[in-house]
Amino acid sequence: MSVLALLFACTSATERGEQALARDDLLAAEREFRAALDADPEDAEALYGLGWTFHQADEDGPARDAFERLVRTHPELPSGYRGLGSLFAAAGNLPEARKQLEEALKRAPDDPSVNQSLALVELAEEKPEAALSRIDAALAKNPGRPELLQTRAVALLKLDRAEEALEQAAAAVAAADSARSLTAARLTWVSAVLDNVEDRVDASNCGTTAAPVRAWLDGADHVLDEAEADGALHDTTLDTRKLVRRRRGWLEDICAPGGGK
């Protein structure tokens, strides 16, 4: 048996499903999680992984079935409630999302993923101060977690603290531990760039101030190229690309390339 085959044989179907999900191979993830559930219909991690696989594929019905099955078979765990909370949040049902996530929080008060999900609900509820406070408390207990750093950057953007958000998003990019978290962090960095553009350009001193901002916008386009090549968050990248073009057009209106004062 080859080394690769031996490693595969020593890895459980649930672990292989999690690895496939981390690289956004949803078909392989579904196959492995289903294999794990064929062997053990109450495998909590496989149920959770299957739910998230369907969630990321925008198949809300099967995702909800998996998460509800997880809640029924393992009501003591936070994961099923977190999954349901994320589904309801994505559908815009914030009260039900909060209800499910608070159930998850009762079971795991310090869980960084649950706290991040609740912070995202608070951001959607237009409560960025509460979200930032929650994320700061979670980071104190889980320093360096990329999803917490990225969500903190979003909260700072909501609070019009764009320069801090830019630094925080860069930290999230550096800490990213999966293709999806890297794309999310990069897009947050782009959002922070866009929020900083107008404050960084002095129309009376284009020769000094415009070039660094053009470099930022070039970097933003490069990030979007990479995100589109990966096929991740496609709708978001298209919308963000339009915003980059608008900021570039604004810059060239007041500081023409090669010109300036």
Write up what this structure looks like.
The chain is an all-alpha fold and 261 residues long. Among the domains are: 63 residues, Tetratricopeptide repeat domain (Serine Threonine Protein Phosphatase 5, Tetratricopeptide repeat, Alpha Horseshoe); 83 residues. Helices cover 79% and strands 0% of the residues. Helix 4 packs antiparallel against helix 5, helix 6 runs parallel beside helix 8 and helix 10 runs antiparallel to helix 11.
Offer a few descriptive terms.
14 helices, 261 residues, Serine Threonine Protein Phosphatase 5, Tetratricopeptide repeat, mainly alpha, disordered N terminus
Give a topology summary:
Blueprint lengths: L2 H8 L2 H10 L3 H14 L4 H13 L3 H14 L5 H12 L3 H14 L4 H13 L3 H14 L4 H13 L3 H14 L3 H22 L5 H25 L3 H21 L7
The gist of it:
With 261 residues, the chain is mostly helical. The chain contains 14 helices and no strands. The chain is elongated and about 70 Å long.
Q: From the helix content, strand content and strand pairing, which structural class follows?
A: mainly alpha
Shape: elongated
H/E element sequence: HHHHHHHHHHHHHH
| Range of strand content | under 5%
Unreliable stretches (pLDDT < 50, length at least 5) are 1-10
The largest pleated sheet is described as: none
Counting DSSP H or I runs of 4 or more residues, the number of helices is 14
Mean pLDDT: 89
User: Roughly how many Å apart are the termini?
Assistant: 70 Å
Rounded Rg: 21 Å
Question: Count the strands?
Answer: 0
Q: Report helical residue fraction.
A: over 70%
